[in-house]
Each structure stands twice: as C-alpha cells, then as structure tokens.
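Okay, can you check this protein?
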Amino acid sequence: MKKISLGLIGFGTIGTGLVKLLQENGELIAGRLGAKIDVKRIADIDIRRSRGIPVDAALLTTDAGDILNDPGIDIVVELMGGYEPARTFILAALSQGKHVVTANKALLATHGDEIFQSAVRHGVNIGFEASVGGTIPIIKTVKESLIANRILSISAIMNGTANFILTKMTDEGKAFAVVLKEAQALGFAEADPAYDVEGIDTAHKLAILLSLAYGKKVRLEDLYREGITRISEQDIEFAHELGYRIKLLAIAIQRDQEVEARLHPTMIPFDHLLANVNGNFNAFHIIGDAADSVFLYGQGAGMMPTASAVVSDIVDIARDVLKGISGRIPPRVLHEEIIEDIRLLPFDQIRTNYYFRFSAVDRPGVLSRISGILGENNISIAAVIQKGRKQGGAVPVVMTTYKARELDVRRAMEDIDRLDVVMGKTMLIRIEDDKL
C-alpha cells in the first residue's frame, strides 16, 4: 500500500490527539484513502514528557528543520499555535513545496493573506478545517457544499468556554466569577481566560469565516468585539422573563455591497436554533440564497474532536497527492488574484433590537425622562419591566426596543447615564428577534 508521509510540528494536546487517532483508526483511514498515513517525524520543544501513547523515540526531534528540510515528507501539520515561529515554519514548508495542515486560527486571522498567497504561489494545498468549529465541518461546508450560494447570513456560537459559562449561569443561577472558576477547574477555561471570555477567540474564527463566505479579506481590528464579563445573574433573569437566552454570538449579514459583522452577547428567543446549544458545544446557522437554512452542531474544541478535523484535511490533501494534483480548491473559495478587501458596514450604522437595564432612582417622572431621551434619538420602546420599590433608592428598570441604529443608541445612553436619577452605567445587550 502507498504511503503519505507526515511531519508534525507541535506535540501538545491536539498533536497527541492526532497521533492517537492515526494509531487507533489507522487501518480504517487507510482503507478509505487507499494509502497509509505515516507519521515520519514529530517536532516539539519537549520530547521527554510522556503523552500517554506509544511513540517511537526515533521519530522525535526538537528541530523543526528536520521536518521542513526532509524531501520525503509530503504534508506538514502545524499544531504548535501562536504567531511565531508557527508562521515562519508554515511559510518555509510551503516554499519547499510541502502541503500544510494547521489548526492555528489566530495565525490565519492575522497572517492568512500571506500564507494563502504563498500556498497558491508554490502550487500546494493548505487545510485549516480545525481552525474554526473544531470537529464541525464548517470550512468544508462554506467552501464546497454551499459553493453555489450567496451566503445571506451566518450566526454562530464559536467558543465553548463562553457558552459553558453562560449555560451554567442560566441553568443554575450562578455568578460569572463562580462559573468561571468551575470552568477553569474542569479544564474548559485557561488560567487567563481573556482569550475566550473577551471574544478574542471568536473574533479570529469570524475573520476566517468572513474571508470564506464572502471571498474577500477582512482585517481583524475592523470587527466589533464584546465579551461576556459584564453579564450578570440579573440580566440572565430578565432575559428569561422576556423569553430570551443570552449567547455570545458571532453574526455576519450580507447588506447589499457591504457585510455587517460583529460579535457580542446577544439575547435570542427560546425557540431559536442556537438558544438550545448549551455547555461547551458550538453551532453554526447559515442561510444561503439557494440552500436556505443550514445548521451545524458539535464539539468546537478538545483533543479528539479537533484531531478528527485535522485528519479530514490530511486525507483531502493525501487524495490530491495520490493523484499528483494540487490547488483543486482555492484556499479561500475565490482565486487569490481576484480577492478584494471586504467592505464592512460601519458598526455605528447597524440596526437591531436592544435591551437596556438602568439603575434608576425610585421617584415619579424618571421613566418619562428616560423614554423622552430615547424618543429624541429615534428609539421606540417595545417593553418595560420595573422590579421592586426602594423609597428613594435605586431600582432596576429594563426596557427593550424595536429596531434602532447603533449610533442613536450610543448617543441616547450617554445622555441617560448623565441623568442625576440614573445610578451607574446602563447595561446594554443586543437582541436578535425577527418578531420584534
């Protein structure tokens, strides 16, 4: 049987999962591929630590050059993460005519242009299914299955840590800080959780998806990003009373010649497909002009789910190697020479529904002053909830709105927060509800 030789750079959690999967399902994969995938070399800075799987010590090296300069290696798999030296290693592999598979979302979101163009220039393939959605085949779906569609919108839960935290807060009524500690103890959150809870991880994934769905480049810094750290038990309770659950959503919508792209905590109705995606699961709701609604759901991270996605890329590339071809599918759907910068709709021009929670002094006329400012800024109120009474003290007042423009909302919030009857900064959460 023919062999496809693999060089693995990065023998951490996902790298270990990849080797484990190839060991356990190697015969199954070989039968489906018609060739054996052979791990020829593994590079890592630590080759002494046990990974809990049998690995021939002769395969291990601390020098990535042993992989990059080996003419017998067909595919280089980069699973070390980070920007450097991952970027340098990938570009070196491509320049040597080697195909590449990576799960490095941060690198692709930041340096994707350079990497994709290099792959095309050197006539080799690059696979990155595992960079977005873990085991969920979202990259293949957008690049291949929906190739005949204009992608009208994408709504997605793309970070399992944030989703786990919001799910526990919702189902158990716990505070953010308490659930975060639980997530860290279970290994769902890092010691420094900012990457997940501030939406940075989701922004990287959204940037990659935008470049595929709309065939254009997007700058990471142009995406509006807001994390979940300000979400309180009070907001969770009010959301439930209003018929919503709160999720950290990434949203992309085609608006004529522009694309609306943003990620932030979002209230969605109980019957929305994404409302019942709980725990550390990820999901994608895509609407195409021909396909209509497509929903993908599964594990968005973890050793074996991510390794599964990596192997899917390896097999796709291996099939091309066996046929002596490459570049059959462009890295970003469109050919690189015709890709243009994406035109993003300015965030202050988006129109959506809003939830406001004010801490207002309990006295006559307060609601009229707040609603008056909203009206002056073209914001119509859909519902009002006021809880409790505290003779002269502050009480929570919640309002939801019909569709309003972000710029108008921000101006109104500045004016309202300056009122002497409003204590502290107003809490704002956007709502996605077609019924409003």
In short: The longest strand covers residues 244-255. The CA atoms of residues 352 and 403 lie 5 Å apart. The chain has a mean pLDDT of 94. The chain has three domains: 2-134+303-337, 138-299, 347-431.
